[in-house]
Records
---
Amino acid sequence: MHILFLTDNFPPESNAPAGRTFEHCREWVRAGHQVTVITCAPNFPKGKVFDGYRNRLWHQEVMAGIRVIRVWSYITANEGFVKRILDYQSFMLSATLAAPFVRGVDVVVGTSPQFFTACAAYLVSRMKRIPFVFELRDMWPESIKAVGAMKDSAVIRILERIEMFLYRKAARIVTVTHAFKDTLISRGIDGTKVDVVTNGVDLSHFAPHAKDGELVQQLGLQGMFVAGYIGTHGMAHALETLLEAAQTLQKTPGAENVRLLFMGDGARKQDLETQARAMGLGNVMFLDSVPKDQVVRYWSLLDVSVIHLRKTDLFTTAIPSKLFECMGMGLPVLHGVAGESADIVRREHVGEVFESESAHQLVAGLMRMRDQSDTFASYQRNGLAAAKRYDRKNLAQTMLQVLMNLKGKAQ
């Protein structure tokens, strides 16, 4: 079977969409299938092309047996609604134009967060008369409104009509949460064509590690209890809550050895660093993103991982992929996201849930984690056990079966 996968995020980018797509495609190749990925020059999240790459019309490489075709797109930092839309639309156009040069395709997959990539996949499916699968990672454009990037308007309503059109035209929809499936059904989409393949963890990469002694020394973290946020610093994440928690900890007797580490990039990072300096936070540290093969070294520095999203109903349907990476590393989590992902934390007993945007509850959780060693150790053990239930290899096979069931069916 030949699978064509359209995505605007792919390694060496190290965000969640890039990781999920690569790991799934790698497993499909290992299962004996041919996989071609059409993507753009790696540039997320800073909007700068990675070293060793150029933003050109066509570049081809092979990664883990996956044929990767990189096409031109309008590249911009993750700032400003209009520029981002131009970025998304340019990739949609380039991917659509490149796809006819990929021969013998049986099925085409277009993945979100934004749906312009899915638009390209739909167009390709019509040209090639093959099934189109919409992998739904985000309820876009609803998430634009949820983070305050854009208010309800005529433009949003047009985007919502396109969104519904794509749901109806997809041969299958693969969502990353059960809540997304429920939302689609409530909006009139046939639930029998919606499959759920959650995010997971590559257990060959994310496993327990002793703290990296070189980094501990380099960053001055000897004897510290380190809580960390690793990931995108965007509007959706409301990381100001973590700064408020750090300010409270700085005034709390006995909390002198607690440090908050931020690692990653995103539209809000510079503002967060400026705010931390203005607040005089000496217990906070900001680090830039590192290549994927180095990420585990930095995860190893953490005693606790903080997962957080803005307090909004939409995000109760989300499951941050880093939750599964924490399980794989045996890292207890303090989880500031309500809904389906919080249910996983409670069900698997891998950490504690606190109310989103509540610095007070976050501080209380951190102090409990530091001081209650038996509870802390149980969260570590439970995380490692739970990770096996979210092994990316098994999840990739589940999605592969969805695709194989469509082989030979004309769109």
---
Amino acid sequence: MHLVITDSGLGGLAVCAAAERALRQTGEGAVVRITYFNAWPEPQRGYNDMPDIASRACVFDRALAAMAALRPDLIVIACNTLSVVYGHTGFSRAATIPVLGIVDAGVDLFFEALTADPHSSIALFGTRTTIGSGIHRARLVEKGIAPARIGEVACHGLARAIETDPDGDAVSAHVDRCTAAACEGAPAGDPLWFGVCCTHYTYVRERMRAALERRCSRPVRTVDPGDRLVAELLRLTGTGVRGQAASSNPPVPAPASVQTGGLRGSTSSPRPEPVEGRTTDYGRPVPVTVVSKVEMDDPKRQSMARRVEAVSPVTAAALVAYTRVPDLF
């Protein structure tokens, strides 16, 4: 079985790592492989920098076509921004490959938290595209949550800052700005849930939660849908059951322009090779390949790899040894 996990950057790598660990622990490492597809389109311009949803959908359509060419059994959009954009793509209206997005997992998790404690409220933090769409609010209201219990904050630029340097001053500045804005308009209720609506924020969620709690002067609890998305992935693929048949799809050669990024520069490679790691006493690691259209420098890869290594060493190693495909989409 071939799974493609995608994000507009490296935020979804945490989902990839959690999926690899879950599949490894269920003994499915021998029959599943994962491609992590970095759908960031240009070096200095992401989807949230584009002028409107139509332009974002046009670019993501091309990325989805490239993912389909890899012949996966399932595409997992581990990105709220791209999950929102997906519904506006032509691919979504004619897809022959199952696609799983993270928005549904988030809405379900947030609804459960709010209904479990009827005195609580939630502050949703996401990108410009995600918060601007109002999709989480609208679906929560449809499920019966009072609008007054839902606050929203768009943290434009935070995802890019996290990817550049998770421990840097730019991240601290964004966290201060976003949590201050959240507390100014935060709905009444105790506790206040911190709804993580961007997978990049997972890497700094405790910093964000603590800052939000300090500024709002009330208990704040985190609800992050990443693990819920992984659980849904396992349910849909049936990989929680030992003996799942492997996909009959053969590997697809990469374009001739493939460049493989290593720790010390780049070398040519005929096709991206999965990083398999070693067999362990807790399951065989799932082969993981990381591909990207844009170049990712060594410091960025090393920094993000350290944040997932404890969960999935093979995912961290795959990021360090990523494959760059300049004409990926």
